[in-house]
Design a protein that fits this description.
With about 350 residues, this protein is an alpha+beta fold. It is about 30% helix and about 20% strand. Strand 1 and strand 2 form a beta hairpin. The chain is globular and about 70 Å long. Its EC number is 4.2.3.5. Its cofactor is FMNH2. It is an enzyme of class 4 (lyase).
Length: about 350
């Protein structure tokens, strides 16, 4: 039984970000322009910082694809960090050229700095920042784009949008909220929604806790940097009665339909044929131009948190990353249910 899985590597200011994808069947058409468009979507959004002016993310396919189609072997993707040119001495692997340039020892509240320094026994917090940075989500979006190309073969499509930023609920209010935060040296989070349409019934399972589709989706989205809560379907379920919440079942022209979708397309850990609707809340970015109180990890003296170049708001980018993460979960589930060694075999299983 084949499985869609991937590993990524790379640091925020390192030479490149890489991914190896395993489990893709042979003969899947890979549209590199589509992958690059998805990467561009991640870089857009009001409130992004200076890094987006340096990077123009494009992917290079290093293995597993020939003449535009997968071979059935692992696919390797690479995104080069343009900013590495300015960080070569800082990020070099050679121990003969150690430098303290760009090292820092003051924790940033809300980041991985404190817990990471304890876990990995590091005093230079650069060693924690570089991999914990949300920069790594660029290669994850590229992987998600490949997953979306796979899903498209089965008629499954996905989208995402921003529902709220700060107290704003319209595009104009989003910008006003972001401008206000930027002027105050502060940051903003928000709420996003991811929707996938035209899914078959029966992805996921109820037989074990770790096979439920909603559980897998929640874990995938919850692990997006800065996401603090994830819900499937109507997130006001806690204040609804059963008769208000549950989606009644009807039959029209021999087809089972629902007139509501409060369950968000998942019942009993399985897709029920309705749109899968995922909502997530992103916290404000913890790197502030007006720094919070913190400690030096070496001296434990009270000081101000370290400031590293950052965004004021990255909620739109978060939506694109979450969309990519859900695509990877769904691609894996499609392979588990309808898998084969080539696309022709997968589609035959699906159509039967």
């Amino acid at each position: 039984m084949e499985k869609f899985r991937f590993l990524t590597s790379g640091e925020s200011h390192g030479k490149c970000l890489t991914a190896i994808i395993e489990g893709l069947p042979a003969n899947l058409e890979i549209d590199i322009d589509f992958i690059n468009e998805e990467l561009k979507r991640r870089q857009c959004g009001y409130g992004r910082g200076g890094r987006m002016k340096i990077e123009s993310d494009t992917v290079e396919i290093m293995s597993g694809v020939r003449f535009g189609k997968t071979l059935g072997s692992p696919v390797t993707l690479v995104i080069k960090n343009n900013d590495f040119e300015n960080w070569q001495k800082v990020m070099i692997a050679d121990p003969k050229n150690i430098t303290s340039d760009k090292a820092f020892t003051t924790f940033r509240p809300g980041h991985a700095d404190y817990a990471g320094s304890v876990k990995y026994n590091q005093k230079d917090l650069r060693n924690i920042l570089e991999r914990s940075s949300a920069r790594k989500t660029a290669i994850e979006v590229a992987v998600g784009a490949v997953a979306k190309l796979f899903l498209k073969q089965f008629g499954i499509t996905g989208s995402s949008k921003v529902l709220q930023i700060g107290n704003g609920k319209t595009e104009e209010e989003f910008r006003a909220e972001i401008d206000k935060a930027k002027a105050a040296g502060d940051t903003l989070g928000g709420k996003i929604e991811v929707v996938y349409e035209n899914l078959p019934v029966g992805l996921g399972s109820f037989v074990h806790w770790d096979r439920t589709l909603d559980g897998k989706i929640a874990q995938a989205v919850m692990s997006v940097p800065a996401v603090k809560s994830v819900s499937i379907g109507n997130h006001h379920a806690y204040k609804m009665t059963g008769s208000e919440y549950h989606d009644e079942i009807f039959c029209e022209e021999g087809k089972i339909i629902r007139k509501t979708n409060n369950a968000g397309g998942i019942e009993g850990g399985m897709s029920n044929g309705e749109n899968i609707v995922v909502t997530a809340v992103m916290k404000p970015i913890p790197t502030l131009r007006k720094p919070l109180c913190s400690l030096d990890c070496v001296t434990l003296e009270q000081t101000e948190a370290h400031f590293e170049r950052s965004d004021t708001c990255a909620v739109e980018a978060c939506a694109v990353v979450a969309e990519a993460r859900v695509a990877c979960v769904l691609a894996d589930e499609i392979l588990l249910k309808y898998g084969g060694d080539c696309m022709e075999e997968c589609l035959k299983h699906f159509n039967n």
